[in-house]
Amino acid sequence: MRRDVRRRLEQYASNPRCEANVISAVHDVPMEAVARALGYSGAVGQSPFALLRGQQFERSLFRDDAVRLRRALITQKVLPANAAGFVDFRMSRNDGPYPNLDASRAAFLQRLAAFAKTVGDARLQLPTILAGPTLMVPGKAILPDGLFAIDVLTVHPQPRPAPIVLRVGEVKVYPDRGGFTDATELAATRAQAGLYVHALRVELQQSKLAQHFAVADDGFLVLTRPSFNLPSVRGAEDLQHQAERAAVMFDRVHRIAERLLPPDSAADDDIPAQRRQAVLDAPRQYADGCLSFCELAPHCQQTALAQGLPAALGDDLARFLGPITLHRALELLHGAAAEGDVEHDLLARIA
Question: What's the Cα-to-Cα distance from 15 to each of 186, 287, 289, 293, rounded to whole Å?
């Protein structure tokens, strides 16, 4: 298993209610191999063009000491007008100075320890943007030594004895369309950012730095402007609920991680049938977002539709119908007598 587990964490956060997805992420059983076992061959994920655009966007944000990102953060009042200073913890493959995640994490913790010791004017002049700091996975839930880099942190120093505030930011390349921004994309991005808030708090506790720092309950998202690779910052994103949910979910992940699956085979592209079957046998819960990241989504959608589950036709309909199946909803629309408060309420809302 690879020690860089960010992709698996993002997969997990995209649909933590689906146990098959969680097992796939925790035990590194690619959903693509599971889907192939069911006869599905279509790949899911970003095109090479989209990936290249995302890499170019992130590099442009941090170029020249993150001047473009800093301007956007100041405009949206994430940072004050006099904010300055930039520290780069990215790896060399992403234009950063560090050869691997271990070196990035060691440098990040060393810099935080130095921040904690500052006093007076030096404390108020700390660098305000940190790019790509690396954290350890909380609770050893996915790998005993799993690491992942978050996109960006902002630093908000305060005079002693107040702690230094750290604020989590998440960078995505999809467009910010104001009130019309894709709701599913936003929900997944907030879930990931909340997960990183929790992970950062755990890292500070384990490194005995928690008394010097406070991780903000709110964060910020850096998206693109429609049709342009320029940043659009959404500040004051409330991540408290997502962070609390991440803490609960990591406990669940830890329990799933303790389940022993058959070992990996030697070849990366040859997943043993028993491991695939462990994912196939797990309960699945389809949601809109699955179509953007999970190769098993077409199968799950067909299954949900056959069972009459409203989620098969979208999350909005699932929220509207609640526990009522599609089959029963059609019966009610065609004149069947409502039974119980839930069905009476549905007919009232339709009327």
Answer: 13, 8, 8, 10
